[in-house]
Design goal:
With 174 residues, the chain is of the alpha+beta class. Helix content is 21%, strand content 28%. The relative contact order is 0.16.
Length: 174
């Protein structure tokens, strides 16, 4: 028999509903936090969904229930020279989504700003070797592009098929 926690009556139950998951789509989001990783030259942009009756506050609820901000609610904006066009696309999406906002190279100024997160599904190989699907931000877009219907929801990104190295070795033997 397990012991009943002291604060059992005061704790509210989880708002996670079995079978409900975030669907691919374009969601207006608000930036909740920005963490600079200068050693790896990227900004970790934590965002949450706003103005959606099904998914508003989705990532905050996940953090509340599971203790960590979920990866699906994080956009990693690389500012390496090789990623300049992608970083500029992110900044442009934020500037176009927030009237009067001008990027000033201070990551703290992004907090509270809005943009549209285009979310898509991606396959990945789990630790046990099975193929699973997760949802991730595929690109940041402006609210203007979303309102004009210019955003295309990406198809499922399939896991690259690995070649069986052992099969080729057996063919080459003897």
């Amino acid at each position: 028999m397990i012991n009943k926690p002291k604060d059992w009556e005061e704790v509210s139950e989880s708002e996670v509903v079995e079978g409900v998951k975030l669907a691919p789509g374009a969601y207006p989001v608000q930036i909740k936090d920005v963490i600079d990783h200068p050693d790896k030259e990227y900004l970790e942009v934590r965002f949450d969904i706003v103005k959606d009756k099904t998914y508003a506050g989705w990532f905050a609820k996940q953090e509340e229930n599971f203790g960590a901000w979920p990866n699906a609610g994080i956009y990693r904006a690389s500012y390496k020279e090789t990623a300049t066009r992608f970083f500029k696309a992110f900044i442009t999406a934020v500037q176009k989504s927030n009237q009067g906002y001008v990027w000033n190279w201070n990551e703290a100024s992004l907090k509270g700003k809005y943009f549209v997160a285009v979310m898509g599904e991606e396959e990945f190989e789990a630790n046990d070797g099975t193929v699973k699907v997760s949802i991730k931000i595929r690109e940041p877009r402006s609210i203007e592009a979303w309102q004009k219907g210019e955003i295309k929801i990406p198809e499922l990104k399939k896991l690259a098929v690995k070649k069986d190295v052992n099969a080729n070795d057996e063919e080459n033997v003897g």
